[in-house]
């Protein structure tokens, strides 16, 4: 297990370096000069050159990337901003604030949104799919299957404002979505994020309902399940003790892949409900051609996805005893 984790972490570091390098070099393919945006409409050539020097943009591209990469571990010294302690992701071209500090301030919003939606997806998606498989061919199965098709066709930017209008403005059943730190008031944290969780999870819950149902039906037709039934085990015991474990392996695998999509959905959800998370930073960085902020958000998002995928791989051994990590 230890050697496996070491290999996965080493591979994750390589992946993050590749992602950062690609993002860095693609940024300069955009025909827009961030230094000119700093300088304003009326900009003298010598002023523009000074700004480019202060931003470190007068050096070769690979040197700029190396300085950025080294700053994560050792910190950096900027002419304009002074010392930037490690982990240093630079300063925003648009706001001059430290990138790492901006991400840390907004990361709890995106983390709360993503984790809460994940709980809703796995709980309701798997539960509904298992109920449909338990009652396969019956009206409950048909209702769950039809509902999943409808849910999979909905979009965040359509469902979000619609539910907010009815549940928040008209019926006033829940408060308007916002972020309250869980350390300040756990109940307000839950109630203010409940609607964004539901909206973000609708499409995924529908997909996991269909996936769980199909996997459970397939597992119930396997030889080992028929053998368990032939030995006199009850249908309930066979369903939950044997078939459930086998069905969870592909679901957990796909969930690890869907984490990237879920993070992208969180960005759209943040924009829909005006939540000030990492999604807001990403959109603003693209609009302002803000390379340090764009790189910082990309690296943090990629690191979160890679880390969660490693945790998903480790879960395999606990879900199915046939799986062994060597």
From TrEMBL:
It is found in: Cell membrane. Keywords: Cell membrane, Membrane, Transmembrane, Transmembrane helix, Transport. The keyword Cell membrane applies. InterPro entries: BPD_transp_1_N (IPR045621), MetI-like (IPR000515), MetI-like_sf (IPR035906). Residues 107-316 form the ABC transmembrane type-1 domain. It is a multi-pass membrane protein. The keyword Transport applies. This is Peptide/nickel transport system permease protein. GO terms for biological process: transmembrane transport. Its main location: membrane. The lineage of its organism: Bacteria, Bacillati, Actinomycetota, Actinomycetes, Streptosporangiales. Pfam families: BPD_transp_1, BPD_transp_1_N. GO terms for cellular component: plasma membrane. Belongs to the binding-protein-dependent transport system permease family. The chain crosses the membrane at residues 9-28, 113-134, 146-167, 187-206, 242-268, 293-319. It comes from Microbispora rosea.
């Amino acid at each position: 297990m230890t050697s496996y984790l070491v290999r996965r972490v080493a591979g994750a570091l390589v992946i993050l370096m590749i992602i950062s390098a690609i993002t860095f070099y693609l940024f300069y393919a955009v025909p827009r000069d961030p230094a000119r945006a700093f300088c304003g409409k009326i900009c003298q050539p010598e002023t523009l050159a000074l700004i480019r020097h202060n931003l470190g943009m007068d050096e070769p591209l690979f040197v700029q990337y190396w300085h950025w990469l080294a700053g994560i571990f050792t910190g950096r010294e900027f002419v304009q901003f002074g010392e930037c302690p490690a982990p240093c992701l630079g300063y925003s071209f648009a706001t001059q604030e430290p990138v790492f500090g901006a991400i840390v301030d907004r990361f709890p919003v995106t983390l709360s949104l993503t984790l809460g939606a994940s709980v809703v997806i796995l709980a309701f998606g798997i539960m509904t799919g298992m109920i449909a498989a338990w009652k396969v061919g019956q009206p409950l199965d048909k209702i769950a299957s039809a509902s999943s098709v409808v849910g999979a066709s909905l979009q965040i930017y359509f469902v979000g404002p619609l539910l907010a209008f009815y549940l928040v403005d008209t019926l006033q059943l829940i408060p308007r979505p916002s972020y309250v730190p869980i350390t300040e008031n756990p109940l307000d944290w839950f109630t203010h994020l409940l609607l964004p969780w539901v909206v973000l999870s609708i499409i995924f819950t529908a997909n996991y309902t269909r996936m769980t149902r199909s996997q459970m039906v397939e597992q119930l037709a396997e030889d080992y399940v028929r053998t368990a039934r032939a030995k006199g085990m009850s249908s309930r015991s066979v369903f939950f003790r044997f078939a459930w474990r086998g069905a969870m392996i592909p679901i957990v695998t796909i969930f690890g892949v869907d984490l990237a999509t879920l993070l992208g959905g969180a960005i759209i959800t943040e924009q829909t409900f005006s939540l000030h998370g990492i999604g807001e930073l990403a959109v603003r960085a693209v609009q302002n051609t803000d390379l340090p902020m764009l790189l910082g958000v990309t690296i943090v998002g990629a690191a979160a996805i890679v880390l969660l995928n490693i945790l998903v791989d480790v879960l395999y051994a606990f879900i199915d005893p046939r799986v062994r990590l060597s």
